[in-house]
Amino acid sequence: VEDYVSFTQHLNASTRIAALLGAGLSAASGIPTFRGAGALWRGIPPKELSSPYAFRDNPVLVWQYHNFRRHIALHALPNTAHYALAHLGEYKDFMAITQNIDGLSQRAGHQTAHLQPIHGTLFDIKCSNPECNYLERENIVDPIIPEMADYGGVDLSDPNVSLPSVTIEQLPHCPKCNSLLRPAVVWFSEVLPGEVLNQVDDWMLSGNVDLMLVIGTHASVWPAADYVEFAREQGARIAHINTEDPSDDQKTEGRDWFFKGDAAVIVPELLKGVIGAPYCI
Ligand code: NAD
Predict the structure, then answer these.
(1) Catalytic annotation present for 119
(2) How far is the CA of 174 from the centre of ligand 1 (A)?
(3) From atom 15 of ligand 1, which residue's Cα is the shortest distance away?
């Protein structure tokens, strides 16, 4: 139900609040979601460009794709929902678990203590050699492949636009062991970063969650779905904010509120009782 009054009463009474964030949060910033329009890159599904197998078979193409995503994210701006959430931690014991890798919550000033990027970020780069521990944080060089520089103004997601030719040698290499570097994001079939998951678990276990916000995500994949279920078992009430109402009963089970629409409009409106109204549209 879309009941702002009962939601606001519960929000005000809540001490501990968790939020699960997905690609829909950044849609208003112009970053395509995986299911919506613009999900395909040059006609290729993102799954085929975001796996260790794809990287092994064609590291140049996988890097060109990530170079593109970094470029889009760096030129996007955080939206009103990123800002509203970034401020919630000043008023409540708050934990945001984000599946997004675009760095927009971080750029909105979301304190790292209240934000766990469980899928990593496009701006952390690590060595692809599992024996090597090289990690570079907050690398915002754009383009990260110098040969891609002239293509800044062209839409490289369009298969009709030719990709600049890049050799393996021109990809970023590890300064420690000279293996290929790669984005430190969680690709399909990979395990999530243990340290980040532990921090989420520590917070979830250190007291009952009163309210869980599920924003712009299907919340259907592990561990996202489990966090919602766990909070619900602790007695949390659950609010979903999404442009689409999932027809699948499993995802709507135990849901207390559903607010249909753009997260950038709805999230600041929902939180204004706590953070004030500077981000309301
Ligand atoms: P998804 O693309 O599978 O789903 C996006 C969800 O957002 C859908 O439920 C859709 O209905 C909803 N949505 C779309 N526009 C919205 C808006 N304006 N306001 C509110 N909701 C909106 O994304 P997901 O569930 O986050 O999971 C897929 C994976 O894709 C994640 O692991 C994530 O790492 C990755 N991803 C990240 C980004 C990013 O960093 N911005 C972008 C695309 C995909």
Answers:
(1) yes
(2) 31
(3) 24
